[in-house]
Design brief:
There is one protein chain. This protein has six helices and no strands. By secondary structure, it is mainly alpha-helical. The longest helix is centred in the N-terminal third of the chain and has 26 residues. 15% of the residues are buried. The site of heme C has 21 residues, from α2, α5 and α6.
């Protein structure tokens, strides 16, 4: 069959339209991630270091979340490992860590250890194949993430780290500290 010019023009038009749709659809379907309120009192260097670390935590947590949700017990234990492999920020070590230390409240280091403990617990509980205990251990870990973010989300803007609403008094656990 001979393709007429009119058909050709129509086909080109349709192809262009599909191309346009294909080009538009991914842009529209990219999900916008909600963000933590920027911790304005942290210097750029500290923020940069933490941002990279947090991107890795977020990735690990997504993996842990989905595997928990579908009761992939072995997978949960595996997905915990990247958080456990993350080096702990010490109070004194490299120059960049010193900058961090100076800017981070003591509670940051407490929660950093808690994150490790709760990840380890989740990793230990997962192979027991008990959905209830798995859900609890997952919840505890998630609370630790939230507790630390709470330090930054709830600082009084003018009060600084020791301002009247410093969250040392109340964590996401609901427990007084
Ligand atoms: C010891 C404290 C601490 C713990 C624990 C912690 N975070 Fe964070 N997180 C921070 C700080 C501080 C920031 C802000 C960094 C910045 O952007 O300046 C942050 C930021 C983030 C962000 C970026 C948010 C944004 O606005 O882009 C993500 C995502 C994140 N954390 C995920 C996690 C997950 C998941 C966990 C638990 C597995 C976790 N964090 C545990 C301190 C912590």
């Amino acid at each position: 069959m001979k393709i007429s010019k009119r058909h050709m023009a129509g086909a080109v038009g349709i192809a262009a339209a599909i191309g346009g749709i294909v080009w538009l659809v991914p842009a529209r379907s990219i999900r916008r991630e909600p963000h933590l309120q920027a911790p304005a009192h942290l210097p750029a260097l500290a923020r940069g270091l933490l941002k990279q670390r947090m991107a890795r935590h977020a990735e690990a947590m997504l993996d842990i979340t989905w595997r928990t949700l579908v009761l992939d017990y072995g997978g949960v234990a595996e997905a915990c490992q990247p958080i456990l492999d993350e080096p702990q920020l010490g109070r004194v070590s490299s120059e960049s860590a010193d900058v961090l230390n100076a800017e981070l409240p003591a509670r940051f280091f407490v929660l950093q250890s808690e994150l490790r403990e709760r990840t380890r617990l989740l990793q230990k509980v997962a192979p027991e194949r008990d959905a209830g205990r798995l859900a609890d251990a997952y919840g505890q870990l998630f609370r630790t993430c939230m507790s630390c973010h709470q330090i930054y989300a709830e600082f009084p803007p003018a009060g600084g780290p020791h301002g009247p609403r410093a969250p040392e008094h109340q964590s996401a656990d609901g427990a007084a500290n």
